[in-house]
Structure formats: structure tokens, C-alpha cells
Design a protein that fits this description.
Blueprint (H helix, E strand, L loop, with lengths): L9 E6 L5 E6 L25 E3 H8 L4 H4 L6 H7 L38 H15 L3 E2 L1 E3 L8
Length: 153
Amino acid sequence: MVVPVIRPLLRLAARNRHGDEVLLARPLPGSIDPWGDLAVLRDTPWGPLIPEVSGEVMSLAVHGYLEPLRAAGLRDPRACLRALDPPVMRCAQQYSCVAHNPRHCLPCLKVPDCYDPPGLSEGANLAARDVTLCWREGRYVVVVVGEEFVPGQ
């Protein structure tokens, strides 16, 4: 059995000079498809909850200008967890896990690290878990489409 290799999402914090901070996560750059390892989630309940932002918007955010990112219509990570319909998305291991907790083993703010999303292939399962855990951390998960830049070059 071949286990798919899923690269973790790149986690970063974008801050402006006033101290405002936005926690972000994105697929690692370098893939032909901007969705990278998250491409397997496009046709799952997770896919529509992951917005695409332009490379320019991401570059501005990383360099402290957060307004274009906020204007991109990002959905609050807690709302993303609720949008997954938590009762339907109970952990796939709910009947075999000795640590299963019916109140936490679903997409919520207390979802455990071992959460196993139901009904997905193994690759999609790992990607969905990573996205769910990012939302738990309060991170906006985005896909960056298009070239990014470094201001001043």
C-alpha cells in the first residue's frame, strides 16, 4: 500500500504596523496547480470553503498591508468549521477510538489533532485534517493564484 505524501500547509502570520494580525495557511508554493496538495479537496465539503486570493493580495498582506486581504471576502475560520455540518462530519474512527469524545471529535474549536475526516480518500483525508486543524487555530486557509512579488524590486 502506497501512502500519499501530503506536505503540510505553510503557516504564517501577517501583521501591519498597528499590530493587527491575520493568521494564514496556504499550500506550499512550487506546484503547477496553485492548490498544490489541497487539489484533492476541490470536490469535497472543504473545497468551497477555501478561497483563492491573488498573488498580489498575498504579497501585500505578507508585507503589512492587510486591507486587500480583508476585502477578499475571507470566511472566518470558526464559520468554516460550522459550515462542515459537524454532526455529519464526526471522526471516521468514532467507533474504534478509545479516546473518542462525541462533543469534540468533529469539526469544532476543540477538534483533536487525531481527527479523521469521514468519507475521503487517504490523500484527501490528510489534507482535510490539516485544513480543519488550521481553522481550529484561527487560521484563514487560502490558495494563492498568480505571481507574488517583493515590494521594492
